[in-house]
Design goal:
Blueprint lengths: L4 H19 L1 H12 L6 H13 L6 H11 L2 H8 L14 H9 L3 H13 L14 H25 L5 H11 L3
């Protein structure tokens, strides 16, 4: 059965992408960034392409998680990367200047808030002691992220140390500012 020309082209392009993506690190990186820039796609489709890139050999890194949060802003693609055990603890999100400039210039920071909070809840930071946060939005995100991180640590403590008395855990929660 003969396929129309455009369908043949799509089949060929899929084969070409699959063949090259398995062998070419730079191609996987470019495809990831291009995929994260597809804001018109449903987040589930973006996540499926990210998952495909992982199957093709992409090894998720903290930088990829930062790109997912600041370029796409959706939680679904970010979740695919975080499920691969990407460790974002102590990753300074503000050190990715190109991504921040793009997010600010494109007005995406508001849309990216949930993804940024997800990274902050896993130990990422917005600056360092020497580099205080300037914007009110970033300060608020940092405060929310710190509380989420503390809650995650307390939850882990409860799970890993069930022998700890509840009053001790309550004191830790109080000290951390968790209500």
């Amino acid at each position: 059965e003969d396929l129309p020309k455009h369908q043949l082209q799509m089949v060929f392009l899929r084969w070409l992408a699959a063949t090259w993506a398995q062998e070419d690190y730079a191609l996987r990186e470019v495809l990831l960034e291009l995929t994260l820039r597809q804001h018109q796609w449903p987040p589930k489709k973006v996540a499926q392409v990210v998952q495909w890139l992982i199957v093709m050999g992409l090894v998720p890194t903290p930088t990829h998680a930062c790109k997912a949060a600041l370029i796409h802003g959706g939680l679904t693609p970010l979740q695919v990367l975080l499920q691969q055990k990407v460790d974002v603890r102590n990753m300074n999100l503000l050190s990715y200047k190109r991504l921040w400039k793009g997010a600010v210039a494109g007005g995406r920071v508001q849309r990216c808030k949930a993804a940024i909070k997800a990274l902050l809840a896993r130990g990422a930071t917005l600056g360092s002691c020497n580099q205080p946060t300037q914007s009110r939005l970033l300060k608020r995100l940092e405060e929310d992220g710190t509380l989420l991180w503390a809650a995650k640590v307390l939850e882990s403590l409860r799970r890993e140390r069930p022998d700890l008395p509840e009053p001790v855990l309550a004191k830790v929660a109080e000290f951390s500012g968790i209500q």
